[in-house]
Write a structure and sequence with these properties.
single chain; about 250 residues; alpha/beta; Spore Coat Polysaccharide Biosynthesis Protein SpsA, Chain A; 7-stranded mixed beta sheet; about 40% helix; about 15% strand; globular
Length: about 250
Amino acid sequence: MENAKKTGISVFFPVYNDATTIRQVTEKALRIVSELANEYEVVIVDDCGPDRSGELAEELAAENGHVKVVHHPKNLGYGAAIRTGLATVQHDWICFTDGDDEYDLEDLRKLWRLRHHYDLIITFRYAKLYSGMRIFISAVYNFVLRRLFRTRYRDISTGLRLVRKEVVEDLDLEATSPFIGAEIAIKAMLKGYPVGEVGIQTFPREFGKGASTSIPNIIKTIKDMLKARKTIFSPNYDLPATRDRT
């Protein structure tokens, strides 16, 4: 624990229609990171949802100086909210999750223990307590990603991960859709950063419906996925400094 206390950590999560869970996610994040490090912050990214999430985020920031809020002037999408969070946080290690409490931040302790071995730690759901359709969509999505990008990851877009800030700063991220999680893992792998996986349980949201498997988000994800594949498999992607194809 003595080494952990010397390392700063930022936790952030986007909110959109998450007024019911924003307080419990924030308070849980504050409790856990305060036990892991002396320097910490919790950043809430308000993606301009139709509920009171942004207003509640400001209330939480007023209550605790470790909480910061960033507001999008309009809804920009999950991937854009993740990129905003990554650009806002300050500390060496970054944990990001979802605002609906589907992923329990207690599992951050598992990821934190592995930070000396990996630069990016992603999670996979070994028990999926969802509808059959959502499980099917997830299985197809992960299968397609493994084939398209030649990766080994079991559940590449699960919404809980820990990454070094230096890694994020080295990646050229473009996705505005839920593909952002896969984009981070794929591009980090191709840059040579060690990527680890940890199995977790999940707790499906108790209210409303998640937007990641909506038709508009699926279409945006496919577009971002194909765009990333075209970029990554181009002859000029991430060439060694001593090489030039022109």
